[in-house]
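call fold(seq) -> tokens
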Amino acid sequence: IDLNYELAESGLIKINDQYETTAKDIYAAGDCTSPARGLSVVTASGTMAAVMMNRAMISEDFWLITGLRTI
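ret:
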């Protein structure tokens, strides 16, 4: 499966501050996005990516119900 996300010059997956890749609705975290390979670092980035995914889903649900954008 080709997800069409971009790689940084380092060869790691390029993400923004919300852990979104350049591919629509695809998030990434951990070893594939950072040269830091420590367990605590990749666990924390995975947690943050999950938080950002949840935030996006909640925001979308809120918009569907109210018509108001939160982000």
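The chain has a mean pLDDT of 88.
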